[in-house]
Specification:
The complex is a heterodimer.
Chain A (H helix, E strand, L loop, with lengths): L1 H6 L1 H19 L4 H4 L11 H12 L14 H7 L34 H9 L1 H4 L18 H15 L14 H16 L5 H8 L5 H11 L2
Helix pairs in contact in A: 4-8, 4-11, 6-11, 8-9, 9-10, 9-11
Chain B lengths: L11 H29 L13 H33 L7 H26 L13 H23 L8 H20 L2 E3 H4 L9 E3 L3 H36 L6 H15 L14 H13 L1 H14 L6 H4 L1 H24 L1 H7 L4 H30 L6 H34 L11 H6 L2 H30 L17
Antiparallel strand pairs in B: 1-2
Classes of the chains: A mainly alpha, B mainly alpha.
């Protein structure tokens, strides 16, 4: 049979494809419906949180930080309750990371504050003297992309039926409403921040990346 | 078409990909050395403002090395080996020549665009699949073009039986195509939302745990198909050719090939051990990772036994030395991976530096050495000049081997140290170390690793210099060497 396959490239290619596709069919597909169910009470991300998630992606925080607490006592002692599949139901993409050069962040919102993040992102060594994390000062000047975040929310609502605008859930509304809500949320965060230019920007209706990423960090609980 | 005259193969496309392999090798490894140094000396994060942080540069390192250096050398080898094992010349078909050139230029400019996009932070943040959807479309076109080249050459072949290397090229093409397409399924938000925000942005079709499953099915296996399957394609041609030996066993090649194809794809879920993926999938990942030793070692042993009775070549031909060491590192890497996939070991190893350590004994030892050996073998046949300096290959070999050993030993120690410190408890059951303690302790290992990276990079510069000299000023040769590559002392 193998000799014959080697002389018949078409059937050879078909054979290879069937053999390699097999694992995906058995291992990946069956889980699809099961694993996308949200845990009770999980709310979709607000527009500002999504914009913050974009900053997290843009600066590729997953290169050093995980968002996956494994079910070991040493991990739950350090980071809190171990992670559940349903908590990630609205994460597109998933941001588990594969390396912990820095600590896990899945529940960082439980034990770090806006003020801590502000100091840390400006100069990590000011709060953790031995830190090897770079400062992300550009987040204080670059503006977050609120419109794209709104577009993402609108897309997942339309295509994947993510429950925006449900009773007691996250409100999305129109683009203008989304922008206004993001700004309101940003103002509440900026009120806890001391950086003058960030406060000025927010007062002017602009949202620097740092405000968005702090909104996202605070949401991770 | 049938003729008895010796075929004049056309290497113009192989030549172009050889250039980019050298270029992207230098860029990718230089960035890698820089980010390794950043972990030991964080001040190095601020060389080019927001574009120079570790986090922004890390995908640039991985992607330029995988898709720049590695794919370029794979394609250089394909546009060389393909013609020879199928007994057709690309010069016989205008269409194939066009496809080859189109393949190269689209790839080259696509790669440059991708480099810029990664520096700007335009990313899906999925490892090794960072590129946003417009880049993905270009990548698909590049890949399909390569497929057309493969099957075009196969279509007009004179040698009816496909040689083992061709099995692996075809499998590599199909595997990566399937994995890349499924993993990058995403919805562009600009169009669905009616023209709001960035046109480049998209959102993954899969969420959370499902996305993780698809991503690591891709992440593990795309690496497998580029770093394993396509490199095996190379060694099955270049080792027998360079040594003048026949492949040790045809049956072993069959077993290793079909075994690898079936087993490999299951192993992706070993990246998700102790995650929220169902237990049975994690266990499947572990079991198949262990089984994977069989086909992996099957190929490697087949290569080593091919040298049976000719081990003297190891001492007097540096290309044999590179390829034998490559096979040996392949064996090391493919026993280490399964060990790490076992649940109790994974609990310590996952998220630590042992993982990059594992990756690098594979890529630096197996993949890098094989790629460079292949290019050294091809150069005199493509450029009609002997290798500029044998001594430089020897020098390079020892510098890089030292680098590899320092790299993986320092990362093994770093990873196990950190994994043990994360879980260490005192007599009352409280955690003994704060997280930052487990970072500070790694400084010496990070320093050693940066030095190791530098050594490998220096070796690569020697390779690049030797290649450029070979292309431009080495002694010309009139007749193509049958086996052993001619080189000046």
């Amino acid at each position: 049979m193998f000799h014959w396959l080697e002389k018949n490239p078409f059937f050879f290619a078909v054979g290879v494809f069937v053999v390699i596709a097999f694992a995906g069919l058995i291992e990946i597909l069956p889980n699809f419906a099961e694993a996308s169910r949200p845990v009770a009470g999980l709310k979709p991300y607000t527009v500002l949180e999504l914009a913050g998630k974009e900053v997290y992606k843009k600066d590729n925080c997953i290169a050093c930080h995980s968002q996956l607490i494994r079910p070991f006592k040493s991990e739950t002692d350090r980071y809190g309750q171990y992670s559940l599949s349903g908590e990630y139901a609205y994460d597109r993409p998933f941001l588990w990371g594969s390396k912990r050069t820095g600590p896990d962040l899945h529940r960082v919102g439980n034990y770090r504050s806006t003020d801590w993040h502000e100091n840390h992102m400006w100069d990590p060594k000011s709060v953790v003297p031995q830190s090897i994390m770079p400062a992300y000062k550009h987040m204080f000047t670059n503006l977050a992309d609120i419109d794209t975040a709104y577009a993402e929310a609108a897309t997942v609502k339309a295509v994947f039926k993510t429950p925006y605008d449900a009773p007691n859930g996250t409100k999305l509304g129109t683009l203008d409403e989304g922008r206004a809500a993001a700004l309101e949320e940003a103002k509440a965060i900026a009120a806890d921040m001391k950086n003058q230019s960030v406060n000025d920007e927010v007062a002017n209706g602009q949202i620097p990346e740092i405000v968005a990423i702090i909104a996202y960090m605070n949401r991770l609980k | 078409m049938q003729s008895n005259a010796a075929l004049e193969y056309d290497y113009s496309v192989a030549k172009l990909f050889t250039f980019t392999a050298i270029l992207f090798g230098i860029i990718g490894m230089a960035v890698g050395t820089l980010i390794a140094a950043q972990m030991a000396f964080p001040e190095l994060n601020y060389l080019i403002g927001e574009y120079g942080t570790f986090s922004r540069l890390r995908p640039l390192h991985t992607d330029v090395v995988i898709y720049g250096f590695m794919l370029s050398s794979v394609w250089a080898s394909f546009y060389y080996v393909g013609q020879r094992v199928l007994k057709v010349s690309m010069a016989e078909s205008k269409l194939l020549m066009f496809l080859g050139k189109f393949h190269f230029w689209l790839y080259f400019f696509g790669a440059l665009a991708v480099v810029v996009s990664l520096l700007l932070g335009i990313t899906q943040s999925k490892e090794y699949a960072e590129f946003e959807w417009p880049f993905d479309i270009v990548i698909v076109v590049i890949w399909v073009t390569w497929g057309l080249s493969i099957f075009g050459l196969v279509g007009i072949r004179r040698e009816k039986s496909l040689y083992i290397s061709m099995w692996y090229y075809i499998a590599g093409f199909l595997g990566v195509a399937m994995l890349y397409l499924f993993n990058n399924m995403a919805v562009p938000t600009y169009f669905v939302s009616g023209g709001i925000g960035s046109i480049l942005h998209s959102v993954s079709m899969y969420s959370g745990t499902n996305d993780a499953l698809v991503q690591w099915w891709f992440g593990h296996n795309a690496v497998a198909f580029v770093f394993t399957v396509l490199i095996i394609a190379m060694i099955y041609y270049f080792l027998p050719k360079e040594s003048g030996q026949s492949i040790y066993s045809y049956k072993l090649s069959l077993m290793a090939f079909w075994g690898l194809m079936f087993v490999y794809l299951w192993a992706g879920s070993h990246h998700l051990v102790w995650s929220t993926v169902p237990d049975w999938m994690q266990t499947m990942g572990t079991v198949f990772s262990v089984v994977l030793i069989l086909p992996s070692w099957g190929s490697a042993i087949n290569m080593l036994l091919t040298m049976k009775g000719e081990w003297n070549q190891l001492t007097d031909n540096p290309l044999i030395k590179l390829m034998v060491l490559a096979s040996t590192f392949y064996m090391l890497s493919t026993i280490e991976g399964p060990i790490q996939s076992i649940k109790s070991v994974n609990a310590i190893a996952h998220f630590t530096d042992w993982i990059p350590g594992h990756v690098h004994d594979g890529v630096l030892g197996w993949v890098g050495f094989m790629a460079m050996a292949a290019m050294y073998h091809m150069a005199p046949r493509i450029f009609k000049r002997e290798i500029y300096s044998k001594k430089l290959i020897e020098t390079q070999f020892w510098i890089q081997t030292t680098g590899i050993v320092l790299y993986f030993t320092s990362m093994w120690i770093a990873g196990i140290t950190q994994g043990m410190m994360w879980r260490a408890v005192d007599e009352y059951g409280n955690l003994m170390y704060s997280f930052i303690d487990t970072v500070a302790v790694l400084h010496p290992y990070y320093t050693i690793r940066a030095v190791a990276g530098l050594l490998y990079l220096v070796g690569f510069f020697i390779f690049a210099y030797n290649m450029v000299k070979t292309m431009t000023s080495a002694k010309e040769i009139t007749e193509e060497p049958a086996n052993r590559t001619p080189m000046a002392a």
